[in-house]
Specification:
Elements lengths: L9 H30 L1 H27 L6 H9 L9 E9 L2 E9 H6 L4 H20 L6 E7 L12 E7 L10 H6 L3 H4 L30 H29 L3 H26 L6 H10 L6 H4 L2 E3 L5 E4 L3 H4 L13 H10 L3 E7 L4 E7 L8 H6 L21
Antiparallel strand pairs: 1-2, 2-4, 3-4, 5-6, 6-8, 7-8
Helix pairs in contact: 1-2, 1-8, 1-9, 2-3, 2-5, 2-8, 8-9, 9-13, 10-13
């Protein structure tokens, strides 16, 4: 099944991919506020650990396979971080140093997540930079080598706001290390269809790189990739978000007092990220602020991609409609099950980010429904869930041009 992103130009895709990586990072800015409210800071931290540990090993291996850089060394781990929603370029400004295949360091010249959490106080900083990072970095590394250990040289809380880099870590692979084993959430995500869904292969022949088998570079230049590679990267990044959300939903359900509470928290997370994602995608691709533009934004939204997983049909020729039918995403119990007739709020947040006068009309059943974008006379206020997500500096973060330089062993 052809990707929806295939309709974009190579230049548009090079703009889109870092946006998608940043949107993936902002899922937590949207969801964790409601977890804190419902369960408190300490349980929020445990949800984050389970969420990332349950999803990142699967999507890390998927990207390695898609772009042909599978291996067991430090460079493979670092390449994976560059294509991980947990480390979007520039917003989470990872820098890398490689000593040899088994030893390296990375540090963050800028950590957008720290900028978001630091104003909340030292307890929240420690939760993120200590409690959450330790197990989740190892969980990501285990996808490449079970003998990899990621350990801090220094990390926040910072002595002052002038302290840079924000944190620094070593990565050491040693046969003497005890192997890292997946955390229990891994096994709950493993049966999900998102883990194994097949996407269109990268067919060589166009201009640009079809893989990332060459040397590690300090900053990925997405414009250097071929159209086919960028389409696959975009689809894989969306799958990362679905896997992260599935793991999030499992962790929330484990703590919720009812099915209704779990659904409410997950819906609020989706409303927040849908609004910010739609706003950023429309601006990045200069789409029109009208019904057709909103339908186009919906078609590019991670909620409805990759089409091989989410299904659905876009038709802008007959009133800007999106039709959703049973899919692997629905079978997994993912985001799409939070939308439909009587569950319009996430879809409304997305179209109102294009223009607050826009709305959606949804007809059909919970399993199969059709959305039509319509215009109202009065503008709607921004949803509180979108306003909460906008608290993140990532909501307005602007990417800057970077030179792509190789990272050589020192």
């Amino acid at each position: 099944m052809t990707s929806r992103y295939a309709s974009l130009s190579r230049d548009e895709l090079a703009t889109l991919v870092p946006e998608l990586l940043l949107i993936g990072q902002l899922i937590d800015r949207s969801g964790m506020a409601w977890c804190i409210s419902a369960f408190g800071r300490e349980e929020m931290a445990q949800i984050a650990i389970e969420e990332w540990a349950g999803s990142s090993p699967f999507y890390t291996r998927r990207m390695q396979s898609a772009l042909g850089y599978e291996g067991t060394d430090v460079v493979t781990i670092f390449k994976g971080l560059q294509l991980d929603i947990g480390a979007p370029p520039q917003f989470m400004d990872f820098r890398y140093s490689v000593t040899d295949p088994w030893h390296g360091e990375f540090w963050l010249d800028h950590c957008g997540a720290l900028m978001d959490v630091e104003p909340m106080g030292e307890d929240y900083v420690r939760s993120m930079c200590h409690d959450i990072e330790d197990p989740t970095f190892d969980a990501t590394a285990v996808a490449t080598n079970a003998k990899a250990q990621v350990r801090p040289i220094h990390r926040p809380p910072r002595a002052s706001t002038d302290q840079h880099p924000h944190c620094r870590w070593t990565v050491v692979i040693d046969e003497a290390h005890d192997p890292v084993t997946p955390l229990p959430p891994y096994y709950e995500v493993e049966p999900k269809r998102a883990v194994t869904v097949e996407l269109d292969p990268i067919r060589s022949g166009g201009e640009g790189l079809d893989d990332y088998s060459g040397p590690l570079v300090a900053d990925l230049d997405f414009a250097a990739f071929s159209h086919a590679a960028l389409v696959r990267i975009a689809d894989e990044v969306c799958l990362q978000m679905h896997l992260l959300n599935l793991s999030f939903g499992i962790a929330v359900a484990r703590r919720a007092t009812s099915v209704e509470q779990a659904r409410e928290i997950c819906t609020r997370q989706l409303i927040g990220i849908a609004g910010i994602a739609a706003e950023r995608l429309r601006a990045a691709l200069s789409l029109p602020a009208d019904e057709a533009g909103a339908a186009r934004v919906l078609a590019l939204l991670p909620l409805l991609n990759p089409v091989a997983y989410t299904g659905g049909v876009l038709d802008v020729t007959r009133g800007a409609t999106v039709t959703v039918s049973p899919s692997d995403a629905a079978a997994d119990g993912g985001w799409i099950t939070l939308c439909g007739p009587g569950r319009e709020a996430p879809l409304q947040a997305a179209v109102r980010a294009v223009d607050p006068h826009l709305d959606v009309e949804v007809v059909g059943s919970a399993a199969a429904w059709t959305l039509t974008v319509v215009r109202r006379d009065e503008p709607a206020p921004e949803a509180s869930e979108v306003a909460v997500t906008r608290f993140s500096t990532g909501a307005t973060f602007a990417f800057q041009p970077r030179r792509s330089l190789p990272v050589f062993p020192v």
